[in-house]
Every structure is written in structure tokens, then in C-alpha cells.
Amino acid sequence: MAFVRVEQRNAHLAGNVRLVSVEGRDGPISKATLTAISNTRRGSGDNRGDEATAILWTLWGKQADNAAQYLAKGSHVNVVGRVQNNNYERDGETVYSMAFTAEELDYLDTKAAGDALRAKQGNGPDEDQPAADAEPATAKAAKGTKGRKAPAKTAQADLDEHGDPIPF
User: Fold this and answer.
1) CA–CA separation, 22 and 165 (whole Å)
2) Does the domain spanning 4-158 belong to CATH 2.40.50.140?
3) Is the separation of the CB atoms in 11 and 38 below 8 Å?
4) R_g of the chain, CA atoms, integer Å
5) How far is residue 107's CA from residue 61's CA, in Å, rounded to a whole number?
């Protein structure tokens, strides 16, 4: 079975990230699904119009946990992943489907914008972490990078409660 690389750039989330725990080979693992919508322009002249593409992505492990914690409906992301066939037999008929698995997820909103989206929807930032009032320096440095990841942070304040770097 071959994997095909898929990129969805400058997309926004159609809803909140749905996180569940599933039983993996080595124990429970996080699985998240999110629907990202991107708009493209097709045609030329008077026939030019917008076309929306919605893709249901699956994320696994720490990437799923981070997405559920930091993203909300309307968040802007770049997603790179793979698509594969998920064909199976049901009642003697072949059912054809495609599965999209995210390998990279770039958060395009600033921390302040992400906190504002989550607060608006009742998924505010953690009680022990104050909301950012200004755009983080790394987000300012990342502007103009056209969706590339911001430089890695090393300051102690930029680590979550488990000591892992926050993905902004």
C-alpha cells in the first residue's frame, strides 16, 4: 500500500478538535480528529471563484494532545500528512474510503489569538497559565516565514506542566 503526501495550507478549523483515548499496542494512546477547510481560487477572469476543500485529519499521540489543548474552531493551521486507501468489504460489497493522517501541524495563530478563540468558545487557557496580552516574540520572528515552524523555544516559561515545549 502506497502513501501519498498531502499538504493543506492556510486552513482554518471547522470545529473543535475531538480527542479520544484508544488502545494501542503499547497501551492507551491519544487520537484526535479535526476538520480543516482551505479556500482556493479556480478559473480566470469572470469565471474565477472560490472553492473550499474540507479534510478530516487524524492526529496521534502528543501531537493529538497538543492540538486538543491549543486549537479551537477557527484556528489557522498548515497540515502536512499522508492519505491512504481504507477499502473494506461489507455485506459482500467493497466500501471505498480515504484516511488522512497528519504528520506535521503548524500553528499559524499567535498564542494570544489562540487563547482568545478558546475563551470565546469556553475552552480558555489553563487556570495556572495567564493569557498572553501581546504577541510572543517567537511569533513575531516567525511572521513572513509562510507557514514554516517558529524557532524552538528554550526558556523555562515556555514549557508546559510536563516540561515539554509548547508548540507555538
Assistant:
1) 24
2) yes
3) yes
4) 18
5) 17
Burial track 43-67 (b if 16+ CB lie within 10 A, e otherwise): eeeeeeeeeeeebebebbeebbbbb
Q: Is the pTM of this model over 0.70?
A: no
Q: What is the pLDDT of residues 127-150, one digit of tens each?
A: 333 333 333 333 333 444 444 444
- At position 138, the amino acid (one-letter code) is T
| Domain residue ranges in the chain | 4-158
In whole angstroms, give the CA distance from residue 22 to residue 104: 21
